[in-house]
User: What shape does this take?
Amino acid sequence: MELNDLKSSWQNAGGHFKGKTELADMTRITHHPSLKKIRRKLIAETIFLLFFLFIYYDWFDGDQKPLYANLVLVIGLLLYIANDIIGYISVAKPIHGSNLKLSISSYFSGIKRLAVFSLTFSLLYSICLIVFFTSVIHFTREKRLLLVALAILLFQLIFWSFRVWNRRIKSLVEQVKDFDKDENR
Amino acid sequence: MIKRNDSTEKEFLNIIHENQRIIYKVCKTYRDTREDQEDLFQEIVYQLWKSYPSFKGESKISSWMYRIALNTAIATYRKRTLPVDYPDKIPEPMHSDTGQVSQNEERLFQALRTLDDTEKALVSLFLEGFTYQEIASITGITENNTGVRLNRIKNKLKEILK
Assistant: This one.
């Protein structure tokens, strides 16, 4: 294929396949391939956590636990909800700059910030839960071991999450570098 | 948040309907499977709608659409990360129900999918007929470097399509 053939194949590719009604549907978040799932998860988690905030005091003996334990639990749950909302907003808007290079670079900075927030909030949320549920426990050797096992499990989950973020960040680093390739020649 | 009325939506839909080839070509270039191409198509239309209020008509519609479409294709996370290289198989066309896709077209998209993301963006704009200056303005890569890189990409494509 010669260059002119390439150009003509490119310029003739596609057509008016999608109707206006179908295109109109695509502008709604309810039809978005990934955002609708993230939003559904965000709403479900928020409802569940708010419900938990209402019932924990009676169901999990909040009144028998010290004030600091109640406070850290509430803070932990609110941090989790905040993290979900910040993540949703960041993912929903990948376009920031006036050109591709600026936009990808700014998106990369946003994702890096989001990764730090997300991992920190997850860690704090886990610590808050552990503090609340262990605040009035009289520790025996078995209970201590159980707590250590639980802490290891939580750290493992956070580590997996770190690896997922790291993969995403690495691919964006490569992309940002690629835009800069040969620019100083 | 900017409130958009029915006439804005109508105007937007007319633009997208008339220029949907651009979205189609970006999807075919950046994604391997029909399912991923359809998902990216929806994602691009959604992002175009979100950014429509900031489109002031100072640039060409095609420049604006390419900028948003390429940005979305590069930035959004791909579900499948394993490279696909089936030179003998032609993937199912994105709109198989509405017409035949020429063999030249499929060969072209297969070749384009072997390039990296920045190369895909540069060559898409070049094939669309944008000048080096316009390509530089959309991508943010200097005009000089755009020329150098496009020459390399053209040679690469010639080798692949030999």
Q: What stands out?
A: Helices of chain B lie at 6-18, 20-30, 34-51, 61-75, 103-112, 117-128, 132-139, 143-160.
